[in-house]
């Protein structure tokens, strides 16, 4: 997620401004703050759309013969669903390769609970990921803290457009990059809270 934000500084600026406005001068980000961060939730959804943790969903087995998309699939066939490809299908997504969190602002009813079959980063049905609520809340909380306490930028000489976002495919996708990210603490604020503490 941080790599996408660094590649799209306008998105980084907007989400960071939202986080800092909601949290204000409090000593830490609290869960109640996260619930007020609508744009952060859009950024998380867009990141999960482009970079699902598990690009291929858990295998399923057909219980009866079925015809799907013009194909005859016999009973007792193992089916593997390519969530990564579904999330990038131009039939469902305008500019599917672009990182555009705003696409979820007007589509608040699109959710990853498994009811919208074109957005299934955690799977769907009985085999949906049981850790989904914990994973989403934890991600929102960690990213909100990173954006609240630190200002982020690419190393000197790096250009956002040249940031390589191709993924290495293994059990869990990861970026194929050796770039380092630089953060600058909001030292005055950290020192202020340390003195209070």
From TrEMBL:
- Give the species: Gossypium davidsonii
Record protein name field:
Cytochrome P450
* One Gene Ontology cellular component annotation held by this UniProt entry: membrane
The family database entries (Pfam families) matched by this protein are listed as: p450 (PF00067)
Taxonomic lineage of this organism? Eukaryota, Viridiplantae, Streptophyta, Embryophyta, Tracheophyta
Residues that bind heme: 129
Note whether Iron occurs among the keywords: yes
Regions annotated as coiled coil:
none
Which Gene3D superfamilies does this entry report, sorted A to Z? Cytochrome P450
Answer yes or no on keyword Iron: yes
Q: Give the record's membrane topology.
A: Single-pass membrane protein
The organism's place on the tree of life at top rank? Eukaryota
PROSITE patterns tied to this protein: CYTOCHROME_P450
Q: Which cofactor does it need?
A: heme
Q: Which UniProt keywords apply?
A: Heme, Iron, Membrane, Metal-binding, Monooxygenase, Oxidoreductase, Transmembrane, Transmembrane helix
Instruction: Please give the family membership noted in the entry.
Output: Belongs to the cytochrome P450 family.
Major location, coarse class? membrane
Its subcellular locations are: Membrane
GO molecular function ontology, one term from the record: monooxygenase activity
């Amino acid at each position: 997620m941080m790599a996408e934000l660094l590649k799209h500084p306008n998105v980084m600026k907007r989400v960071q401004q939202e986080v800092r406005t909601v949290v204000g001068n409090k000593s830490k980000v609290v869960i109640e703050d996260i619930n007020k961060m609508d744009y952060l939730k859009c950024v998380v959804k867009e990141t999960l759309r482009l970079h699902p943790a598990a690009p291929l969903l858990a295998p399923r087995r057909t219980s009866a013969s079925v015809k799907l998309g013009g194909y005859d699939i016999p009973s007792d066939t193992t089916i593997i669903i390519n969530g990564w490809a579904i999330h990038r299908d131009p039939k469902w997504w305008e500019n599917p390769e672009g990182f555009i969190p705003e696409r979820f602002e007007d589509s608040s009813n699109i959710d990853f609970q498994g009811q919208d079959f074109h957005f299934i980063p955690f799977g769907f049905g009985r085999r949906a990921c049981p850790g989904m609520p914990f994973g989403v809340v934890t991600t929102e909380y960690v990213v909100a803290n990173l954006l609240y306490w630190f200002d982020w930028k690419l190393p000197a000489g790096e250009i956002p457009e040249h940031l390589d976002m191709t993924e290495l495919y293994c059990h869990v996708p990861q970026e194929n990059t050796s770039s380092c990210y630089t953060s600058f603490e909001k030292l005055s604020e950290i020192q202020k809270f340390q003195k209070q503490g």
